Amino acid sequence: MDLDLMDKVERLPKSPGVYLMKNKGGKVVYVGKAKELRNRVRSYFRDSGDNRLQVRFLRSNVADIDFIATDTEKEALILENNLIKQYQPRYNVKFKDDKTYVSLRLDLRKPFPRLSIVRLPKGAKKDGCLYFGPYSSARAVRETLRIIYRTFPIRSCTDTVFSQRDRPCLYYQIGQCLGACAGKEIKEEEYRQLIDQVILFLQGQNEELIRILKKKMEEESRKLNFEEANRIYNRIQAVEKTIERQKVVSSQLKDIDIFGFYREGKALAIQRLHIRHGKLVGGKADTFVQPLTPAPELLSSFLNQYYGSSYIPEEIYLPFLVEGSGVLVEILSERRGSKVQILCPQKGEKRQLVLMAGKNAKMAFQKDQGNLESYPDQLDELQKKLSLHNLPVKIECFDISNIGGNQAVGSAVRFIQGTPDKQWYRRYRIKTVHQADDYGMMAEVLERHYRQASVAENLPDLIMVDGGKGQLNIARDILDKLAIHTPDLISLAKARDDRLRARKSKGEEKVYLLGRKNPVILSRRSPALFLLQQIRDEAHRFAISYHKKIREKEGLYSSLDDIPGIGPRRKQQLLKHFGSLDRIAEATVEELQAVSKLNKGLAQEIFNFFHGNKGLG
Asked: Do 463 and 479 contact (CB within 8 A), yes or no?
């Protein structure tokens, strides 16, 4: 061990603070917090049976240690979280948050309110609306909405569409909406009763909801209104079926998060389960490669990052006591606005929930074990084979998608520690290039991307562009123009559309490097090549999906634009009247004539156009 480094450790203060471990290149590779800086950092260098892995790691990876002293442990915990976000150190466990959580919003100030999906940033102020959630994922909230719309005939259209409709949509025809938009005989009071039922459903008060529905069904039966009674009966059946699918795991009707932890060698998994009103509503596992940090410190850091943007429940159950739990409780309670409890249950129902989370963490670890074991080798091989200056922990890749220069788009994706970090995904619609010019498009996307302050302040270790030497040189010119010199730069060439040729070349791909005439050919079985292909293919997928979305959107209006006599105003009138292009295409001449200022000749022209063309694009 370097004597100068050991001397520096011995001279650390005994106060609370944050320490930053750096490699030989001066790059921060680990950030940690401590109640007493000297004792904490010194503990890493003890060659005991429990931390020999840490000592070996320090000897080969750490050349210097800096520190920032703080007045309190609470300040150290907050500073640690900020520095992890700033430096993105290789050996910290990093929770990839999207700064928001998903909820359902209901604005009761409107006469016919609707549910909408919202992503609330941390600390967002409520605006007088009712909020339900947060949900564990966008998928979970969409599934909830699907159940609600099939069970309760409330409107799903946006306020803009609702205000412009003068005839009901398909959902009215199939009985999944009451058609309030088109002036159907539905009173606000009747609609509000439906909304009250939806609120009970979302609050988990299903027994009360069923009681109200049964009473309503009996009333309709006494009035001999059997059709309405049957609709209510079907609603009761749907609610009861939903209850059967929900797993009640806690007798306490609280919001609880449970964490499981599993570690083996250098890798680990953290599983979180979400209980809302006593029901298990979702969960997710995160896997990491992290050879350095003791489990209590590691889990404490993860919780501090995770609850920096995620919903904070009333109670949090952990498998073991984390470092600085009292300070963490104080911080989380401040963020929540009410008291938060962190518990380490030892028996009973709560302990069983923690054991269940631990079991799921182990299964997540085993599922991802191959990737966890190969990831460090992938990075090391990549750095060695391509002679990179940086260990490529953060890799950013760019791709262009266009057809003959039309609706051209570009994408940027980022992987950190071998996994996608979608908060850094970006997509760009090409603005300055109007013909098939891949070089010009790539130049525009790179310049727009790296001119963003948030991106420029958090550069990747490696930038990869999809293409050959031409794309590589364009990328170099743009980075030079922006004075960005820290990241390594490569291009990966693939004949993506020629599968036969790809098979003949045995899957070989060419990696072009600056200052080297010939490309590097990585073995098709190379873990490093697999990582590059995975990232490049994700950039391609992201670009293609955006390109497709734009083409579909433009296609909505291209048919109307091709009809003589249809300008922007008439096009808007048609869409407002019918609601969609499909409805316009299905309309009769008489129905088309009902649109304001549309004469019979033009109505016939529109009818002939759609019935003489097979497609709508």
From this structure: yes
CA proximity to 446, closest of 407, 491, 415, 416: 491
**Which of 19, 60, 59, 63 lies closest to 39 in space, CA to CA?**
19
CB neighbour list of residue 611: distance below 8 Å, 6 or more residues apart: none
Give dist(CA 101, CA 196) in Å, integer.
25
Evaluate if residue 95 carries a pLDDT over 90. Answer: no
Run of H or E residues at 611:
helix 600-611
Helix (H, G, I), strand (E, B) or coil at 337: coil
| Residue 583: burial class (beta carbons within 10 Å; 0-12, 13-18, 19+) | middle
d(CA 403, CA 548): 11
The string of pLDDT tens digits covering residues 400-426 is 987 655 678 999 999 987 888 888 999
Nearest Cα to Cα of residue 437 among 393, 467, 412: 467
> 96, 413 in Cβ contact below 8 A?
no
Residue among 132, 171, 170, 384 at smallest CA distance from 255: 132
Strand partners, 56: none
Beta-carbon count within 10 A of 615 CB = 8
Helix segments in 410-468, DSSP class H: 438-450, 453-456
Domains and their CATH numbers in the chain: 3-87 (3.40.1440.10), 100-245 (no CATH), 256-367 (3.30.420.10), 377-551 (3.30.420.340), 562-611 (1.10.150.20)
Spell out the alpha helix ranges (H) of 279-347.
Answer: 295-306, 325-336
pLDDT given at position 184: 62
- In whole angstroms, what is the distance from residue 177 CA to residue 171 CA? 5
Distance, CA of 538 to CA of 446 (rounded, Å): 17
The pLDDT tens digits for 343-364 are 999 998 899 999 999 999 999 8
Non-local (6+) Cβ contacts of 62 within 8 A are 5, 21, 22, 23, 29, 30
Structure tokens at 429: 């619609």
pLDDT of 505 above 50 = no
400 DSSP β-pair partners: 410
pLDDT of 249 higher than 80: no
C-alpha to C-alpha distance for 73 and 94, rounded to whole angstroms: 20
Cis peptide before 89 (omega within 30 of 0): no
The closest alpha carbon to 338, from 309, 311, 320, 318, belongs to 311
Integer Cα distance of 187 and 587 in angstroms? 30
Dump pLDDT digits (tens) for 71-91: 999 899 889 988 988 888 878
Report pTM. 0.57
DSSP 180: G
Q: Three-state SS for 359?
A: helix
Query: What's the rounded Cα separation, in Å, for the pair 218 and 137?
Result: 38
What amino acid occupies position 357? A
CA distances (Å), origin 597, targets 19, 463, 471, 541, 600 = 74, 56, 53, 45, 10
CA distance 176 to 23: 62
